[in-house]
């Protein structure tokens, strides 16, 4: 091993500090991904990554939350899709089951289930909140990627206009998934 100069070591520490401070975890569950440019990283509890999705003109910003719960955790794809669909209502009320678009595919050798759903989002500020806040005109773009030992969950929620503007970048993020070296 070649010893580092003090200057090189200082530059290394500054870069490492900046990376840690940025909160941009772009790896979890044995998977790596590339975060979209322009999406600001924002640390949130219980998430391996969280990105602010820029607002489309005349709409609010959205967010993309990335979850990984550890080996053997997180539940099945079916259980999670059902739970996510249950977080929405059809525009006129009632269940959103018939509105979900689902695609099961393989990305760079990784099994991925992608869902797309629009309607009234039943937003809860925290998982056990007693009452959901109804947000009509919302859309969810989500993916469940099979990691090495458990799934990694990507869940974008935003007003429909913002989600539509972010769709290509969301698809690019999912398309960038690869197994960690």
What does this structure look like?
This protein is α+β, with helices and mostly antiparallel strands and 181 residues long. It has one domain: Mog1/PsbP, alpha/beta/alpha sandwich (Protein Transport Mog1p, Chain A), CATH 3.40.1000. The chain is built from 3 helices and 11 strands; from the N terminus they run αβββββαβββββαβ. Strands 3, 4, 5, 6, 7, 8, 9 and 10 form an 8-stranded antiparallel β-sheet that branches. Strands 1-2-11 form a 3-stranded antiparallel β-sheet, with no helix packed on it.
Order of helices and strands: HEEEEEHEEEEEHE
Number of folding domains?
1
Helical content (DSSP H or I, runs of 4+): 10-25%
Low-confidence stretches: 1-25
What structural class do helix, strand and pairing data support?
Answer: alpha+beta
Q: What is the annotated CATH architecture? A: 3-Layer(aba) Sandwich
**CATH-wise, what's the superfamily?**
Mog1/PsbP, alpha/beta/alpha sandwich
